[in-house]
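The protein record quoted in full:
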Amino acid sequence: MNKFMAILFALLTIGFFGLSKLDSYQTRNQTPHGEPSGPVRTVEITPADKNGHIVFGMLCLVACIYFLVSIRHDSSRRSTTMTPQEAKAIAERWVVDTRGPNCAVLTSSWFEDHSYFVFKWNSRRYAETMDQRYSLLGPGPAIVRKLDGQVFAYGSNWNLGSLEKLLERQRIEDEQELFVRQRFPDYDIRKRYAVIVQEIYDPARLLALLASFELRYVIPEIETGVIWRIARKYDQESLQQRLRAPLPICFGGIGSHELHDLLLADETEKLCQFSIEAYQPREKPTYDPAKAKPDDLLPLW
């Protein structure tokens, strides 16, 4: 339908622009039976008529472009359409790769809408027998995104919530990911990132925004012959001290919502210049001060 309408309006565009180039045209009277009668008359086309033809030509051109864009959009949607069989193959591979070969997709709990497939997983033995004795504790739903086949896992608390809320949460996160990718094309919402502040332009506003994120940091402390690592929440004073540190300054543990808000505020108010990098966890640290390496005693920002 869109293709037919695009062709129709393209022809109308050509016709109206063609008429705008004419200065006159010839015509003859017709009999009641539609046969030509009488002398040929020349009719002059006025400038107002020409302008009308141009206006209608422009309107037809806009309509033609609209339907061409619709055709491209429909083609793009068809090219990214994922069949249930493809989604199940992705889900089964994800379960085995991330949860182990003894787990499997529950085919009885499968849901599809225009953007996602939702599935649940459990132990393979439970999937085969549906015997509660073999059910695992904790598995939550997971989502396959049709656009690119990415899988997003959710906790067991979402088993009790509505499916509509789960999908709404996923749509919000997809929108946030697209927004962040405008600045950082390789951003993956499923990974953890650290924000590296390189320049600060508005310290007061940046401080207020970071304080709203409820960020945390870890400073190792030695007590009773053990290295303790307890996460502490930044307060106003500790954030001020952190922002006075030599640049660049690293803030780890910033989630997708916080990164989205930081980018949004920075676009409108230009708070700072920053980059992001994938979070690199340290090797398993020791708790024995005698065996501690220098890195084991450094703060985790």
